[in-house]
Design a protein that fits this description.
The protein is mainly alpha-helical. Helices cover 71% and strands 2% of the residues. The protein has 2 domains: 92 residues; 82 residues, no CATH class. The longest helix is centred in the N-terminal third of the chain and has 29 residues.
Length: 174
Amino acid sequence: MGSRENLRRADLVTALLLIVLGGAVLWQALEMPWTKSFGMPTKWYLSPGLFPAILGVLLIWFAAQVALRALREGALRGFGPCVLQLLAGLPRNRAVWRSALALLLIGAYVLLGLGKLNYYLATSLFCLAMMAAFHRPGGRFFDLRGFGLILAVSLLGPLAVGQVFSRAFQVPLP
């Protein structure tokens, strides 16, 4: 089993994930209004869903091309044992758990924080959680000075961004 086959398997998995993402983008684009905008009739080519729909279709098309090429070049040879080996090593794979934690924190921020909590509070809590989980100054698990810096950045960062958006760009944050 050569590295070329491993690359083809990675291409296939990535292409399948991109096809799913393209389908989700296309589905959401089709949920947008196509014949009315702000209660006024409009042409389909002026629809807010047109550009995301085109991007979704292109993403599906190009990912399908990558998937077909990977299949032609033998992406399925030895795929089963490779998946079983990956699943067997999953509980010990620290990188996977760190990625899962990052996705969990991002999901909590988007789904539970934004729109439900004050923007500054939600963003400060998110920054604090992310930096506390992933920043290890000096390789130690907990460092009081490092935690003080994390706390300062997570409190002052959202305030600075909010001020730039509200004063310089005149766009209020939620």
